[in-house]
Amino acid sequence: MINAIEIMNKSPLLADVNITLGYRIMDSCSDVSTALRATADFTQWTGCYTRSNTYGPPVMAVIGAYFSEISIAIARQLTLKMIPQISYSSTAVILSDKNRFPAFMRTIPNDEHQIAAMVSLLSTYGWNWVGVVTTDGNYGQSALDHFVSQASEKGICVAFKSILPQSVTNGDVCSAIMQTARTICKNPKVQVIVSFAKPTHMMYLYQELKNQTLGAGQKMETMRRVWLASDNWSFSSHVKGNITLEDIGHIMGFTFKSGDLSSFNDYLSRLEAAGPDYIRNNKFLQEFYMHLNSSTYSGETELVSKAVNRLREHTHAGTILSVEMAVSAIAQAVVLKALWMKEFKFRKNSYKFDSNGDINLGYDVTMWRSDGGNIYVHNVVAEYHPHSNNFTHTDHSSTQQLQDLKQIISKCSNSCVPGQFKKTAEGQHTCCYECINCTANYYSNNTDMDQCLSCDIDTEWSPDGSSSCIPKALLYFSWQDGFAVVLLTFSALGILLALLVSALFLHQRDTPVVKAAGGPLSQVMLFSLVISDISAMLFVGRPNSFQCKARQALFGISFTLCVSCILVKTLQILLAFQVDPEMQEVLRRLYQPYIIVSICVAVQAATCLCWLLLKSPFNYVIRHPTTLLEDCHEGSYLAFGENEGCIYRTEE
């Protein structure tokens, strides 16, 4: 804060107009009451500068506080006199309500964006069974409510909610932490815990977890979890106490965007070079000096160096950027409206408070790592972009670190594999379910499906527990079928024999034997046999409309032609052996070979034509549970019977 103010005072923005920013820094001691007394102190004389100049010029703006609970309390006081307040760390959503806090602004995003980032991360890794640890203040309750709301929309269930007293001096805090530790130990399936608590709470919680784990005779590895740390404690390495990071598990923190720290590091270097004389005039460094002096016998110069190094360790880059941005905004502002609505320059970039008084730059995602006993909390592995709600990895190493986390499972129930669906019992969390196999003709093609999908029963089927539908096998009288091969072989032989006999008869057509066999009628009969054998081929292969209509009609007409020729032969024989003159004369008059053949064929053709015109055969599919049988439907079985009857009557 001091460094940022000194930089702005030396900048051309203020130096050219001979304006100097003064400051009065007051420590809230992380306590609301202390912060309220301090706020009342400087607001009492703000606006009554003419009565007394003991305190100097009136306060024009306030930067802070760190914790949301404190910012909410003092914002109510500052709103009465419309004194601008800019926080560099308070993220409670309620502070974005301009009807209640019109004078409040901040250089960071509110918790809705942080919670959205957390929920997105949980969803990405498939962690849908999580615990939440928070405090009972405005910040903790608001964060809990928003997290539960956003998590439920993504199908993430909260296994337990542990609400700790906000003040660590509260007498109930110890029992609350003990109960929280017991809850965590009793929920081994909850491998991911989201925490909005304060650093001190987390330090006590980790210690209690260790005590209960060892007290139960369990190994330390059983307390390992993935901890999603809010900006409240994501860079507070001291929370681990005397417990190793390996025992705690993985800590992923969400921190504010960091920037260039060169100016702050230069400032610390100047402090270190100034030595003990300068530190006596800096109350904040004196606190470090006093703590170090009570635990070491080093010289004053060495104590100053240690105090400065301790500052380097415990000051987060994101906080520094937010503080510097707040100071820069105030330096460029004249009145509240200008501060809120107009853009301001900071490090060659333009920034602007939105309608809620926030500046949303996104978050850095850190993963704590241990190296040689030292904890590195500023290990940035990804960046969260709130406008697109996605993450980008910083480098290949960070990608690998995040990929390793996918091995961790935090679910109430194991995932239902494809072929199953989730069945949740009444009153249970939606994340706790039983996996049931899909029934026949139903399937699920993804994990954790809420219901099975139906197959198209006309063309598909599936057995129990199937992950996909199986096309029904299409069956018909195939050319490769054994019976079809035999049928076609005999048909081919019949055609060949008929053609050979026809050729022989044609060659010997003038001989008495051929003439006695019927002459031209023999050729007609042989032709009809060839057509009948050819029609047999229409019964083989995948049926189509033409085949279904042609095969019965062609066979019926050709076979009728053959039988009518045989009828003529029969009449010829009867005529030859008839001894009764009168009967012989009748038979001789009736014996008109070509007329008889034509009439028989015409009757059969007329029958087939009526059949085809009125209700012709068609191809159709008979659907069985696992197969499709494609066949020809005769259309009208009455017409089919009439067709066959004509052949029978001809034979008679």
TrEMBL record:
It is found in: Cell membrane. SUPFAM superfamilies: Periplasmic binding protein-like I. The chain crosses the membrane at residues 320-340, 482-506, 521-541, 553-574, 594-614. Signal peptide: none annotated. PANTHER family: CALCIUM-SENSING RECEPTOR-RELATED, G-PROTEIN COUPLED RECEPTOR FAMILY C GROUP 6 MEMBER A. Belongs to the G-protein coupled receptor 3 family. This is G-protein coupled receptor family C group 6 member A.
